Structures are given as structure tokens and as C-alpha cells.
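Class, look over these C-alpha cells:
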Amino acid sequence: MLGSMKSLNKSKSIVVMMDINEIRNYLPHRYPFLFLDRVTDIELGKSIVAIKNISINEPVFDGHFPGNPIFPGVCIVEAMAQACCVLALKTMGTGVETNKAYVIAGIDKVRFKRSATPGDQVVIRVEVVSRKRTVWKFKAEAKVDGELVGSAELLCAERNLDD
């Protein structure tokens, strides 16, 4: 899906390992709705690679689906959106201390190809398509073991959390 991602990998990339503590500096989300565990690569203003480790201990598995746990597609989309937000906020140099956040303004071309289940590590890749002032458009994909789980185009807009 992210055909141009190959060309991004050839460009000079800033390798940044962001652990959960640093991610929490950029996202206002907290347990049980923080869906990123680590950022493995980020090129400010261009792309990000993030990880979501799926554990059987996730509260969502109490009801989706007992005996056959599948991580919900809406949670995959939320994880992709959170990666988009980290990229935008880190690029802009703002985070929770400034009460700035990015919210989903639109989601297009969402597709799911396979399920993600406990024990899976979801690798989320996002690239910036465009940016106009405080509104960003991204292409995102989520993979497990190199296989596409889902993809989407996301529109995110900056919001002041005090509003």
C-alpha cells in the first residue's frame, strides 16, 4: 500500500527509539486507550514506524470475542491515528505539556485483510501525504509478521485540550 515508503527508507531517516514514557509526553491517552508501545523510527514531517504489542490482558478481549480473541479493527485504526498524532506533535515540537493534541477529522479507504490476535506485534507505518496549517493527511498501514492487517487514510486536526 505505501508504495512511496520504499523511497522514504532510502532517504536519510532519523532513528529514534521512543519508549512508552516518551510517547506519553506526546499523547494525552492513557490505559486502557493508549495503543502504542514503542516508536522505532521517525523522520520528522515525513514518516513514523510504531509498535503495538497485543496481549491477552487487554480489556477489550473480555467481550471481543471470548474464546476467540480478535483485536478490534477500530482499535487498529486508533493505533494508526495515535502514530499519526505522535508524528505531527513531535514534528511541531508540541505535546501534552502545551495542551495540544491531534484528533481524527476523517478516515478514508479503510481496509482490513487479516485479524490481529494476542501475541501479535502490530507494526504501524505512517507517512505524511499533505499538511495545511494544523490539518494533516496521512497514509497508514498495520502489519503483523509482514502481512497487512489493515490500512487507511487519516485526516487529523490540531486541537487545544483546554477548548
Notes: The two ends are 36 Å apart (CA to CA).
